[in-house]
Amino acid sequence: xxxxxxxxxxxxxxxxxxxxxxxxxxxxxxxxxxxxxxxxxxxxxxxxxxxxxxxxxxxxxxxxxxxxxxxxxxxxxxxxxxxxxxxxxxxxxxxxxxxxxxxxxxxxxxxxxxxxxxxxxxxxxxxxxxxxxxxxxxxxxxxxxxxxxxxxxxxxxxxxxxxxxxxxxxxxxxxxxxxxxxxxxxxxxxxxxxxxxxxxxxxxxxxxxxxxxxxxxxxxxxxxxxxxxxxxxxxxxxxxxxxxxxxxxxxxxxxxxxxxxxxxxxxxxxxxxxxxxxxxxxxxxxxxxxxxxxxxxxxxxxxxxxxxxxxxxxxxxxxxxxxxxxxxxxxxxxxxxxxxxxxxxxxxxxxxxxxxxxxxxxxxxxxxxxxxxxxxxxxxxxxxxxxxxxxxxxxxxxxxxxxxxxxxxxxxxxxxxxxxxxxxxxxxxxxxxxxxxxxxxxxx
Length: 444
Known about the structure:
By secondary structure, the protein is of the alpha/beta class. 46% of the residues lie in helices and 18% in strands. It is built from 14 helices and 13 strands.
């Protein structure tokens, strides 16, 4: 990391401004070679200088140059940011000129990687930056900010503190066997703490499943027989004519998709073909797809026609979805209802009556309130590693229960410890780091 890297930090394309970022020992000197204005090498940290960028004698642009001297920068190296006009050509010319004068083009995520390797942030914070950039709703944004502010690190540190205390007790027993009876020490002292820790991990993992739903969106399918108002409901929720609405049965033959944000919850909506017995080959394929989606969706919105009595297909759909997270909608309330179902939402997609009740029910069902105490993980890699850590912990507990030698118990506990260290990046391979940071955008 002795070289100086540079990259465009703003999205590629025409805009009002572009930011070009450099990081490395020679950042200030390299920019000073092509900058006409104040002598940047004499400037204090966290200052902005006005001037012009030249490629030899050719004027490229009027710019503002911000200087952040080590260690008071994102990477803990000397960092310079050039704010220029946002034309594609001029931005690339400045970048090329920097490379001609001693900088090299950064790899994806290399700025954040340097921040991690220099101890500015841990691995959970580095990954939170990417989650922050890709957040699609307010809840995902808040979760990413929490992780960036070390909520994930604190959670893992709490687990590590409990674990290292128990490992320490075992180490003392191994080194000084006369200090405590092995059976008493493991069964009465260590085992209860490990059981508590396993239970704590279960709770974290359960909440982490919910957090993943908020990060990636809830796969939600709208099902029902033909002409009950599924496509009308999709259009109403999206506030656009996404799906064709017709009183001709079988109009929707394939899956129609849309994305909706309700109260910080993202729904990946799927409008399905009307489910019925049909001799039409193409429509039959759509019906089978709809049934398969019921199995794979996280939330099912079942729409029933309230102006008609329940029929065999309605009853089949009620049965197919009874073990799913679901919302039942009785539509066409404006025509008079022929039946009622407990906890079902009565709606009219024609007038949008009941839409607010539906939105409230979606927020309630997705258990958003379960994330208020912040004791959860938001990253798939973290969740996988915590699952592995729990498996090792449970193996240690089993070993205690069957009176295995204490050093065997310790092996599983140390494996658990290493998985926890991997989450924060305290133990990591260069290959894993390269893979993680390659997913970042250039300039980040």
